[in-house]
Specification:
By secondary structure, the chain is α/β, with parallel strands linked by helices. It has one domain: NAD(P)-binding Rossmann-like Domain (Rossmann fold), CATH 3.40.50.720. Helices cover 47% and strands 15% of the residues. The chain contains nine helices and seven strands, in the order E-H-E-H-E-H-E-H-E-H-H-E-H-H-H-E. A seven-stranded parallel beta sheet has the order 3-2-1-4-5-6-7, sandwiched between helices. Strand 1, helix 1 and strand 2 form a beta-alpha-beta unit. Helix 1 crosses helix 9 and helix 4 packs parallel to helix 6. The longest helix is centred in the middle third of the chain and has 29 residues. The chain binds acetoacetyl-coenzyme A and NADP nicotinamide-adenine-dinucleotide phosphate. Pfam families: adh_short_C2 (PF13561). Its EC number is 1.1.1.36.
Length: 246
């Protein structure tokens, strides 16, 4: 059988890089989709992933047409997309009383519109071929809300609604759609939180530490496996116990 083709948005980011490596180790051909403007980071990513079947493709997930063009290029090169992981995300934290419209639009545009933009272009190929795995990287803060994150929490909660609705639409076509809700992990996004606030957050995590990107990647690898076809419309929390629910 040909290798499954996996596309990971935010693919050169902290979680994205580990997700790419983990899927490649599991025998997938991986395309890391990310902004094309960060030459140094792209070069660093290329060095890290040199030994694996991983390549970089530039796209702005907030731009519908850009996503369409990127998906078209990948399908042209590789014949189709089997796995889509939506991991591109940004924060623009600030309490609502200080939040300008730009901070709202930017976060919704990348974190939520980005999921629509990529899924809209990728899903038909999956249903036509009768196989697909979509994983949306949400957040514990989409489940609980977080001070200073009305924009981010709204986008991440919106991803769950999107996930469940699309899961129903494509369930009979061999395509699963799930979300993963990480807690606070060791990446640039979390390191940008002021140190005193971050250490208070870590103190409140039952496991007592930040998550490792590889711990999120492990969950994504599990959900995208060929034999994970009965898990759909689900949300898997990976948060060190920060938010427990059933
Ligand atoms: N709970 C209650 N009160 C809080 C608070 C909190 N968590 N944080 C701040 N406050 C209080 C302050 O003490 C201050 O009180 P006073 O006015 O009485 O002095 C007031 O709220 C400050 O309010 P502001 O409107 O001035 O707040 P701000 O606009 O400056 O925003 C903040 C502060 C930038 C949001 C800061 O609190 C912060 O960085 N918080 C962390 C947010 C966070 O967790 N972001 C996660 C980023 S990583 C990520 O998102 C990944 C993931 O999915 C897990
Ligand atoms: P990260 O290191 O900042 O990676 C995110 C990647 O997405 C970056 O490479 C970023 O590029 C890219 N990106 C931003 N805007 C984009 C756009 N418009 N188009 C394409 N790519 C874009 O963050 P991370 O910690 O790995 O987070 C990955 C995902 O997990 C995000 O969706 C985040 O919300 C979610 N998450 C993270 C945590 C955590 O603790 N780290 C917890 C819960 C959920 P730039 O760096 O150039 O902006």
């Amino acid at each position: 059988m040909n290798k499954r083709i996996a596309v990971v948005s935010g693919g050169i980011g902290g979680l994205g890089t580990e997700i790419c490596l983990s899927l490649a180790r599991a025998g997938r051909r991986v395309v890391a989709l990310d902004l094309g403007s960060r030459e140094e980071r792209i070069a660093e990513f290329a060095g890290l992933t040199r030994e694996f079947d991983i390549r970089f493709e530039a796209a702005n997930v907030a731009d519908y047409d850009d996503c369409g063009a990127a998906i078209e290029r990948i399908v042209g090169d590789d014949g189709g997309i089997d796995i889509l992981v939506n991991a591109a995300g940004i924060t623009r934290d600030g309490s609502l009383r200080k939040m300008d419209k730009r901070a709202w639009d930017d976060v919704l545009g990348v974190n939520l519109d980005g999921v629509f933009n990529l899924c809209r272009h990728a899903v038909d190929g999956m249903t036509e071929r009768g196989f697909g795995r979509i994983v949306n990287i949400s957040s514990v803060n989409g489940q609980t809300g977080q001070f200073g994150q009305t924009n981010y929490s709204a986008a991440k909660a919106g991803m769950h609604g999107f996930t469940m609705a699309l899961a129903r639409e494509v369930a009979r076509k061999g395509v699963t759609v799930n979300s993963v809700s990480p807690g606070y992990c060791e990446t640039a996004m979390v390191m940008a939180v002021p140190e005193d606030i971050r250490s208070r957050i870590v103190d409140s995590v039952p496991v007592g530490r930040l998550g490792k990107p590889s711990e999120i990647a492990r969950t994504v690898e599990f959900l995208t496996a060929d034999d994970a076809g009965f898990i759909t419309g689900a949300n898997i929390p990976v948060n060190g116990g920060l938010f427990m629910s059933f």
